[in-house]
Amino acid sequence: MDLYIDTANLDEIKQVHAMGVLDGVTTNPSLIAKEGVDYGKRLSDVCKVVSGPVSAEVVATDFEGMMKEGRERAKIAPNIVVKVPCTVEGLRACKAFTDEGIKTNLTLCFQPLQGLLVAKAGAFIISPFIGRLDDVGEDGMILIHQLRQIYDNYGFKTKVLAASIRHPKHLVECAMAGADIATVPFSVIKQMMSHPLTDTGLAKFLSDYKKAFG
Ligand code: E4P
Predict the structure, then answer these.
(1) How far apart are CA 77 and CA 89, in angstroms?
(2) Is 105 in the pocket of ligand 1 (CB under 6 A)?
(3) Looking at 83, 157, 190, 211, which residue is catalytic?
(4) Which residues contact 199 (CB under 8 A, 6 or more apart)?
(5) What is the reported pLDDT for 30?
(6) What is the DSSP letter of 136?
(7) d(Cα 60, Cα 98) in Å, to the nearest integer?
(8) 70-86 tens-digit pLDDT
(9) With a 6 A CB cut-off, is 163 part of the ligand 1 pocket?
(10) Quick count: other Cβ atoms within 10 Å of Cβ 180?
(11) Ramachandran angles phi, psi of 109, nearest 5°
């Protein structure tokens, strides 16, 4: 399963890149607003650090607006993936971008038929938001399983990117369900390599060694 970081914070991106396990980045308008920087400039800086796919979301909601913005974003770097919402306008834009050779990430997916349509339109990535489904009393993981099966049934190449990840258990389940990618907040990435028994075990090894050899 590929690991993307879900942030527009350059320092977090650099830290995970330095771990040697970063495959890509996803951003969205909320994440860039939190940083308070120019979206285009930040994307350009991110693409200087990360060579894998970097998702850049459009803020237009109409077809023409999405196409204009997406084409501009795509010019920033060859690894930019244009992120558009799972709406009818987004679906049209997905098809048009695909025809132009621009990769797309279809975001805000909450039900499997959105996934079926965007795969037919040539989406590079579909982003099911599992945490937000859990938040409203549904089981977000079911959507990952549904998309995996639909794509496998018909041989769609669209990648299932598990988004809105809230905790490590989501990641274990996504990996077991066959998600192609998970995009993960920095705080959860740090949790992935952490276990209290690792810490106490290491402390014991070192204190035993020190007792014996000084
Ligand atoms: C995905 O691309 C989104 O940026 C993200 O995963 C949304 O997560 P949230 O529900 O924690 O905002």
Answers:
(1) 24
(2) no
(3) 83
(4) none
(5) 97
(6) T
(7) 18
(8) 999 999 999 999 999 99
(9) yes
(10) 18
(11) -90, 125
